[in-house]
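Lab channel / #folding
Pinned by the channel admin:
"Please post every new chain as: sequence first, then the structure tokens as a reply. Keep commentary short and put observations after the output so the thread stays searchable."

First post following the new format, from NK:
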Amino acid sequence: MATNVQLRTQQPSKAPPPKALGQPWVGAAGLVIVLAVAAVLGIVPGLPRSLEIIGPASTFCLPVLAVAALWWKGWPFAGLSRLAGGLATLGLIVASGIVLTAAGLAVTGNFQLSHLFGTAAEAAQGHMVTFPFTVPLAAFVFVTMLQLTFVCRQWPFDRLPAVAGGFAALATSWAVGVAGYFLLATWDFVPAVARHAIGLRNPGGPVNALNLVGVLLCIVIFQMTLFFLLQGYPVSLIKSQPLYLAVANATTIGGGILLWWILNSGLGLSSPQVSEVAGVIVAGTLIAGLLFEGWPARAVANPALSRLALLGTAAAISVIAGFALRAISLTATWTGSPPQLWVAVMGLNFIGAFVIVHAAVFRRWPLPAGEPDQPEPGS
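Reply from TO:
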């Protein structure tokens, strides 16, 4: 015993690693970082320009972000520091998103590199631009990726290595997204002369292309509240995988379509208004569930009450975010694009996405990297 003590005393003393912040402080600090980045992307360039230029490209980034954060979990930069790995991963996501935006523009219309970041005003001048014409396709790809990741629990690619599974999921999301877009979307409400002038392809499906975005975002509401925030409960109680997959997919897709019908036909909300609701709900669920890690609801010992508290927390955050973003949107001059779409992009693409970037890609850098305090159940 004396020898062991002597060996320990002969070792050079090291300062203990910094202790990670506990909740709610780590969540509050992360929220400040996320809101600062969201302001740079969504406010500094001007609200309409942010919506029309950054909005579509960032939507095409979302499936790649999901793959990098939830499938690859750090690959191919896992060996780097939090800052270096986070920057490298973010660069990969942005670069991939730009390439996929170009692909989306080629799929939906006449691709020209000079119009990749064009505004809606340029569309009025006869140029094919990304907003709003690529948004339905981007939304379809993103929703498919969420369905594979959260609802299907990465099935059928869960038996593949993580890297291969992520690539397969991204390719499948694009295949389903392109097929769904051409089967369902229509641009009949755009005059044929205007479509011909900008080179917009009209799939001629049964659903108004902009309404299709609203339907897809209603599905996202179920994906994020039921299968992310509540981890699939109560559908997750089903033990049989085939039955679970059938019920889970029917719940999200059928529930999303029903919710769209209620909001649109029942309450008279337009597609931009529905998108606004969905955007702030996604922001609320990610802030409550990922950034704050379920605090304070996780301190409730009763599981049912804890879930209700978690839903209540996410709902409160969503309401606050909705009112705050709507107030900001009223400070800009909107000549064509609805301000509700800017609120949706801020909530989903900027705030929600950068919650994932901060927590999963940068691993909460620059906050201390030590192990956070784990509260005792019911504390």
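NK: The beta strands are 185-186, 207-208.
TO: also worth noting, Confidence is low (pLDDT under 50) at residues 1-14, 371-379.
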